[in-house]
Structure prediction request, 196 residues.
Amino acid sequence: MTADATGGKKHRLLRLLLLLAAAALAVSLLHRGYRHYMRTAYPLGYTELVEACAEEYGFDPSLIYAVIRTESEFDPSAVSTAGARGLMQMTEDTFEWAQRRAAVEPMLDFDQLFDPEVNIRYGVYTLSLLRERFDNPDTLLAAYNAGMGNAAKWLSDPRYSDDGVTLKAIPYEETHEYVEKVRDAQVMYRELYDIP
Prediction:
């Protein structure tokens, strides 16, 4: 083999190695950019409150973050068309029910749901109360969104449940989409932040 042929092979090999290094760098930058973008779309907020309440009531923090993101996009002043308020979008009836179950005296005013600490504490507490009746996670989320009475009615109807525990179908499209959104968001929180 001549010196020119050997030099040509070395030059092609060096060019190939440089292309591979550039491709690896581009992939790394794209991954970091994607991760940054996704963390912007799935932010963490109120972490001390979320993690403390999740631990107190035995929930994965990723579920609580997913509910908050789905309900209010982390806006503590959010108000729904149904009048639900705050981060976890609690209605006045649900808030009063949770306070009665917690034996709160005197009862807090509905406007206090705009306080993130009150809202997260009672939102997670409400989830824990619903879990007493609805052990299946998707059914629990359906009850949080559509109300305990609707979820119980669906469980007793063979069109929606075969076993009285798990919903095979959710007749409200909004609730069906809500459960899917929360579940998808929970997966993203687990992946993006390595949290349970």
